Amino acid sequence: MTYKNFTVETDGDGVALITWDMPDKSMNVIDQSVMEELEAIVDHVAGEGTIKGAVITSGKKAFGAGADLTMLQKMLGEYQTGDRKDSESAAKGLFDRAWLLNGLYRKLETSGKPWVAAINGQALGGCLELALACHARVIVDDAAAKISLPEVKIGLFPGAGGTQRVPRLIHPQEALQFMLKGSSMLPAKAKGLGLVTEMVPADELISTAKKLIVDGLSAVQPWDQKGFKLPGGKVYSGAGFQLFPPANAIYRRETYDNYPGARAIMKCVYEGLLLPFDTALKVEARYFTEVLRTTEAAMMIRTLFVSLQELNKGARRPNSVGETSIRKIGVLGAGFMGAGIAYVSAKAGIDVVLIDRNQESADKGKAHSEALEDKAISQKRSTPEKKETALSHIAATDDYKQLSDVDMVIEAVFEDSAVKKTAIEQAEAHMPKDAIFASNTSTIPISDLAKFSKRPKQFIGVHFFSPVDRMMLTEVILGKKTGDQATAMALDYVRAIKKTPIVVNDTRGFYINRCVLRYMSEAYNMLIEGVPAAMIENGAKMAGMPVGPLALNDETAVDLSHKILHQTIKDLGESVVDMRHVALVDEMVEKHGRFGRKNAKGFYDYPEKPAKKHLWPGLKEMYPQQNPDAIDIQEIKDRFHAVIAIEAARCVAEGVVVDVREADVGSILGFGFAPFSGGAISYIDGIGTTAFVAMCKKLQKKYGDQFKPNKLLNEMAKSDEKFYERFDPDHRPEVKKAA
C-alpha cells in the first residue's frame, strides 16, 4: 500500500521501517491524514505474519512538532458554532474527536507487535507521545534532539496519553515538572531518567532500534504487565503523601490557578495513577475535552500558536518589496542595549560595526557578547568554537567611517533627542545611500527623530526589549514618511535574528511602552492610595503578570521613569502627566537616590547574594497605609488587567495597532500580559465587551478616568461585538495574512 506521509519497508529480519516524511512540510505534524494512515499501518503490522515488529522514524531533521493545532482550532470552532441545544451531545462529539489520537496510540501499543521509536531529532508534544506509546525509544546523541511536552504553554496539556505514560516511566515528581514547565529535555537526561531506552550516535540509530526487536523486545508495555509497580510508589502511600500535597502547593504558587491546562495535568496524574491504565486514559481524554472548551485554551492557541506563527512568517511585510539579505549592520551605542543588539546580530551571522564615543567604551560593549557566550558555554548552550565565530562578527570602534558598507544602522544611544540627533547626523555622513536607519528609542516619536534625517523614507523604529538576548519581541515603528523598503528590510532583519516582530504606527511610547507605562502608573496610583506594596506586587502576579509593576520599574530603571516624565513635561506640558506620579518618582530619585536595580536601590533593596531582594521598607513611610484586610484583591487584579486592556483598545482605535494579532502577541511577549488571557485584546473578547465596559465604568467611578472606556469600546459594548470580528485580520485589506 502507498501512503502520502509514510513509507514502509520490511527487511529480511521481518522488521518494518516506517519513515514519516510529510510532503510540503518543514516538520512532521499530526493531522487527520497522518492519523488515518498511521492506523492503517498499525493494522498492517499487526496483521502481517512475516512482520516481527516496527521501527518508526522521521525523514526530516526533527522527529516531529506535535499535533496540528489548526486542526484542533477548527474542531473547537465547529463545536462552538454547531448545534448547542444538546450541550451534552455536543460535548460528547468533541470528546470522541479528541479521543481519536489517544485511542490510536493505545491501539499501537496493544497491537501484539513491538514498536520502537527511532528519534532522530526534536520530538515535541503529540509526536513525543507517539514515541512514548512505543515499547522502546532510541534517541540520537545530539543536543538538537530535545524532547518536550510544551502543550501547557498554549493552554492545553499532553492529551494523547502523555499524562499517564510519563509518570509510569519516571518518578511522578520528575514527570510533573516536565509537563508543567513544558520545557525541553536533552537526550542524556531523558536516558538517565528512563524516558528513552537507548542513546546512540546518529549512524547507529536505526540499527540499534531494529536490534531491540530482533533480540526479543516485549510487545507488552510495563503498565500492562502483571505486578507493575509505579516508579514513585502508590499515590496513597508515604511517598505519595510526600509528593502530591506539596506539588499542589507549588503549582498554586507558580500559576495562581490561572491555567486550566496546568490544573488538568495535576488532576490527570493524581487521578490516573489510582486507576487501571485504560480507565486513566479515559479520564485524561475527558479533562482534555474540558480544557479544550475553555476560553483560556481558545485564546492561547490563537495567539501563542496561530498568530505567533503568522507574524513570524512575515504577515505584515510589504508585498511590494522583494526579500532582502542583511549582510552587515552598524550599532550606535555600546551600552547594555546596543551591546545586546550587536550580540544577537552576530549570533545570526551578521557582521556588526559596534560604535561608541571612544575605543574603550566600544570594546566594553563587545566584551558583553564574550560574557554572554562564556555563560552559555558553562551551561552547555554554546561551545568555544561558536563563541569565536560570534565574536569574529563584531568590530568594536569609535570610527563612524566604518559604516561605509553597512545595509542598516541601529541607533541605541542615550534617550535624549539632542544626543540622538548627533548620532543620526554622524552616521548618515558615512553610511550608504540605500541603507536604512533604525532608532531603538523607547518613547520618542520616530517622526520627530526622522526630522534630523536627510532621508526620512529610510528612517524607521526598531524597538528592542531588555535583555535583548532573552526577549523575543521586537517592535517595528513606522514614521509618517517611512517607506516600504525600510519596513521590509527592518522585518527581514528581525526575522534573521529570530525575534517576533510587530508593526505599529508612530506615537509617543508606541504600543508596548504605552501599555507598560499604564501598568506601572496604576501601581503608582495604588501606592499613593496607601495600598501596601506587597499587595500591589502579589496582586499583579495573581493577575498573571510575570513581574510585579514595582519590580519591573526597578528593572527598567526608576531614574529612566524620572527622565521620561520630565521629558514629557518639557515636550507637552504638565497637563499630560499625573503630577502626583512626578512627585513620587522625584522623591525616589532626587531625595532617596533610588534609581532601580542598577544601583541596588529602587522600590526594592538588592542586597548581595545569597540574600534575596525585598521591598524597600521606606515605601510604608511615603503614604498613609490602608488596612490590608479592607482591600479587595480581585479588584487589584481587575485594575491591572483593565488599565492595560483599555490602553490596547485605544491603540487599536487610534490606528497605532492595525492588526489585533500584534496587539495580543506583543502584549504577551513584550511584557508578559496574563498569557492565559491570550493577550490584552483577547482578554476583552474573552470576558465580552459588554462585561468589560461595565467593569471599567465601575472602576472609573471609584478610581479615576484611567478606566474610562473610549468611544470604540462603548460602541462595541452595545452589541457585545468582539475585536476579532470587527478587526478580523483575514478580511481587512490593510492587514496581510501570512501565506
Question: Can you offer a commentary on this structure?
Answer:
With 739 residues, the chain is an alpha/beta fold. It has three domains: 6-293, Alpha-Beta Complex (2-enoyl-CoA Hydratase, Chain A, domain 1), CATH 3.90.226.10; 328-509, NAD(P)-binding Rossmann-like Domain (Rossmann fold, 3-Layer(aba) Sandwich), CATH 3.40.50; 513-726, N-(1-d-carboxylethyl)-l-norvaline Dehydrogenase, domain 2. Helix content is 50%, strand content 10%. Strands 11-10-9-12-13-14-15-16 form an eight-stranded mixed β-sheet, with helices on both faces. A six-stranded mixed β-sheet has the order 1-2-3-4-6-8, sandwiched between helices. The longest helix has 23 residues, at 87-109.
Chain-wise SSE layout:
Blueprint (H helix, E strand, L loop, with lengths): L5 E5 L4 E6 L11 H16 L5 E6 L10 H13 L5 H23 L5 E5 L3 E2 H9 L2 E5 L6 E2 L13 H8 L2 H10 L5 H7 L4 E3 L4 H10 L23 H18 L4 H13 L4 H16 L2 H18 L15 E5 L3 H12 L3 E5 L3 H20 L5 H9 L1 E4 L10 E4 L5 H12 L7 E4 L6 H5 L8 E5 L9 E6 L5 H13 L3 E6 L6 H18 L3 H10 L6 H8 L1 H15 L6 H13 L12 E2 L8 E2 L3 H4 L10 H21 L6 H12 L8 H8 L1 H15 L7 H7 L5 H4 L13
Parallel strand pairs: 2-3, 3-4, 4-6, 5-7, 6-8, 9-10, 9-12, 10-11, 12-13, 13-14, 15-16
Antiparallel strand pairs: 1-2, 14-15, 17-18
Helix pairs in contact: 1-3, 2-12, 3-11, 5-6, 6-9, 6-10, 9-10, 10-11, 12-26, 13-14, 14-15, 19-25, 20-25, 22-23, 25-27, 27-28, 28-29
Task: List its salient traits.
739 residues; alpha/beta; 2-enoyl-CoA Hydratase, Chain A, domain 1; Rossmann fold; N-(1-d-carboxylethyl)-l-norvaline Dehydrogenase, domain 2; 3 domains; eight-stranded mixed beta sheet; six-stranded mixed beta sheet; 30 helices; 18 strands; 10% strand; disordered C terminus
